């Protein structure tokens, strides 16, 4: 691992997990003179009551986080579902305040997640379930299925799920069972050098995912890769290109599979 990646991971750990963000603190201190200047300018032309609540970071940000892989993933897959117009779409573990909300804005969606959701959301039918276990009565239940940025967490215990080193394999098998013949499965996972980053996520060799899909009667039709920074490309299903992806540190792969008809 390069020094840059090591410092980036340390920064994420301190800021996201322990709430210690030195970069944010320094930026806030540097922004205070501008805040005081703007406050004095405003006061010179306003005689009413003023309460103070400094917001010191928005000057440095774009209007939207459009370089994030979640943004592109949610947008791309929601648009594909809109075009496909499936009879029934089921989602497993994707962000409710992202992808699920996109889809629920134009159609009904059924959602499974290992964690509870107490809010009633229009267009969303929710069911709490651990997909590392088969879902009773739900075999061949949908013609469209999604699992975005979730399978890589199965079995690591991060979200209260049981520890299981083979959790992603069990989860994939149980999700494939939900899908009808000719149905479409949209799956996104981190791809690159195959490894477990405990307990955050797995990173998969893309060929591992393709092989696992083949074992459950699924054929890859499209592979879209989102690189760090938001660069998106459709990758040809070529052995050399897949090998190149497997040697990268990290990217996000969006796999679109179709379930073959049973003979």
Structure commentary:
The chain has 263 residues and is of the alpha/beta class. 35% of the residues lie in helices and 23% in strands. The chain has two domains: 3-60, no CATH class; 69-259, Rossmann fold, CATH 3.40.50.150. It has seven helices and ten strands. The strands form two sheets. It has an eight-stranded mixed sheet with strand order 3-2-1-4-5-10-8-9, with helices on both faces. Strands 6-7 form a two-stranded antiparallel sheet. Strand 1, helix 4 and strand 2 (109-113) form a beta-alpha-beta unit.
How helical, in percent, are the residues?
25-40%
Mean of all residue-level pLDDT scores: 92
> Biggest sheet: strands side by side, in what order?
3-2-1-4-5-10-8-9
Give me the CATH fold name of the largest domain: Rossmann fold
**How many helix segments?**
7
Name of the CATH superfamily of the largest domain: Vaccinia Virus protein VP39
Q: How many strands, which pairing sense, and closed or not: the largest β-sheet?
A: 8 strands, mixed
Strand content: 15-25%
Shape: globular
How many discrete structural domains? 2
Low-confidence stretches: none
CATH class membership of the largest domain: Alpha Beta
Give me the strand/helix succession. Answer: HHHEHEEEHEEEHEEHE
State the distance separating the first and last CA atoms: 48 Å
Radius of gyration equals 22 Å
The structural class is alpha/beta
- Give the CATH architecture of the largest domain: 3-Layer(aba) Sandwich
